[in-house]
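Worked example

This section walks through a single chain of length 148. The input is the sequence exactly as stored; nothing has been trimmed or padded.
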Amino acid sequence: MTTSPVRVERRAGQRFPYLLALSLRQPDGSAEGVGFTQDLSSRGVFFFTDAPLTEGAEIEITLRMPSEITLGESMPVRCRGRILRVVRPANSAYNVTPIAAETKIGVAVRLECYEYLPDPSSASLGRLTSLHSHPDEEQPPSHSAVRP
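Given that input, the structure is written out below as tokens.
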């Protein structure tokens, strides 16, 4: 009788299987590109890309972080981290025409910090706030009443 080996989970955060578009760049300017996530947690991400990335390099990733991770609304976030592992396609040594997902490299990144970005979809809120008076601004008295 054989038993399967017990795998110890080394991840600190819960991993969520998300297929999200992302953009990436290395701070030294050596690589830029786009990709898509396979899974995501508050401390790490695994994604696929065509960009030439290497283990140990610093990376900056921009994506829309889902509400399960932000514990609020989903929002655009720029994450900085370090590449832990690069997984080459299994059939890259053969002259076989692979499907698109098999031609991309898989990249595991440990996220070290986040920067929440302005949400372009909430741009209409700025227009709404300009309709309301602000107490520190002097405005002439209005004699007409506007009702919704």
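What to look for: The longest helix spans residues 123-129.
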